[in-house]
Amino acid sequence: MGLLVEGQWVDRWYDTKGNNGEFVRESAKLRDWVTPDGDPGPEGQKSVSAGSNRFHLYVSLACPWAHRALIMRRLKGLSELMGVSITSPYMLDEGWTYELDEGSSGDPVNGVRRHYQLYTLTDPHYTGRVTVPVLWDKKISRIVNNESSDLMRIFNTAFDELTGNHLDLYPVPLRDEIDRLNAEVYDRVNNGVYKAGFATDQKVYETHVTALFETLDRLEGLLDERRYLAGEYLTEADIRLFTTLVRFDSVYYSHFKCNLRRIEDYPALSNYLRELYQWPEIAETVNMAHIKRHYYGSHPGINPNAIVPLGPELDLDRPHDRERLPGKGIWQSHHD
Ligand SMILES: N[C@@H](CCC(=O)N[C@@H](CS)C(=O)NCC(=O)O)C(=O)O
Predict the structure, then answer these.
(1) What CA–CA distance (Å, rounded) separates 336 from 293?
(2) Does the annotation mark 266 as catalytic?
(3) CATH number, domain containing residue 148
């Protein structure tokens, strides 16, 4: 685990001491956009134009942030026009790698063995953390964007004319509600499990676990009444929650000590998790072996012997009861 300083790899764990025992996630730095014709992004971001076979997605199947992008790629029908490289599940001294014998797909586009090389190819003096997911532009040979929440929005619209897929996971009438949900779920659930798991101070850990379960309790109430987080439509807010829920009982409960309750103990949340998992496009993006090998095998400070627990025995294919609530699937944008 490490980061780049002026283009040089430095092997270093997160500095929680400088933050009173708190894990602070660094903001992603490569934030350009993709639009159908290269016009600026929704907030004026510098953009490149969409193209068939122009982009390549680098992910870890273990990583919940990369997982969001992978699900969007699949739901938006981008699999044919955008290839994927999968890292080794282990993130150790050299960060993410493309070691074939550890279960990586390798990197047919750039032939790199270390994920950080994609960053130094983009900027030889790059300084910052080296994260997945990454969207690579094959035309200008650089990373376009390394922030999963941006990639979800880019995939939601940029390629619609090429694919004819007009599913909309961020529909205009639901945006305020989605933004509100995202803010809470990001801070207290998606990032909350990391803040609990990487805390090196008892009080800091307790604060984050408490906040996490307060929000899970609240979401349990919400999902008892709503089919999906924002109502009748499945939106990006659901995808963002799903990638944490699907890792919860196998990893976060034990490895990150988020163990007040399991997702299995929540009737609505566990049924909701199973419904989402049973969407075929979603199920095919879930790789529990990579997930478990990554977390239990990449954090020697938390699990020094890297033993991967055998359990729990989960059956996400068993029936769910979500049909009791009205649902309309994914919103469809109308095009003339
Ligand atoms: N803001 C980023 C965060 C991604 C992220 O932190 N990914 C983790 C893997 S789950 C990573 O690559 N961490 C490497 C590091 O922090 O050095 C996003 O959502 O895309």
Answers:
(1) 48
(2) no
(3) 3.40.30.10
Ligand 1 pocket: which of 72, 130, 132, 236 to mutate (most atoms within 8 A of CB): 132
- Are 232 and 326 contained in the same domain? yes
User: What pLDDT, on the 0 to 100 scale, is given for residue 326?
Assistant: 98
- Of the residues 58, 63, 170, 296, only one is catalytic, namely 63
Neighbours of 74 (CB within 10 A): 18
309 located within any domain: no
The list of the chain residues with pLDDT below 70 reads 335-336
Sign of the dihedral through C-alpha 145, 148, 153, 157: positive
Q: What ipTM, to 2 d.p.?
A: 0.99
Question: Quick check: is 217 in a domain?
Answer: yes
Strand order in the sheet with 128-129: 8-11, 2-5, 128-129
How many CA atoms are closer than 13 Å to the CA of 103, on its beta-carbon side? 17
Please tell me whether residue 316 adopts helix, strand or coil conformation.
Answer: coil
Provide the sign of the torsion angle of the four alpha carbons 233, 159, 44, 145, taken in this order: positive
Could you tell me the two tokens for 226? Answer: 């709503």
Q: Is residue 113 part of a domain?
A: yes
Cα distances from 144 to residues 46, 78, 111, 184, in angstroms, run 10, 17, 18, 27
Domain region containing 183: 172-291+314-332
Tokens encoding 5: 């300083």
Q: Give 186's DSSP letter.
A: I
Where a domain ends, among 119, 148, 165? 165
pTM equals: 0.98
Annotated catalytic residue: which of 98, 119, 170, 194?
Answer: 194
- Catalytic residue status for 258: no
d(CA 232, CA 262): 26
Pocket of ligand 1, beta carbon within 6 A = 1, 28, 63, 65, 129-133, 147-148
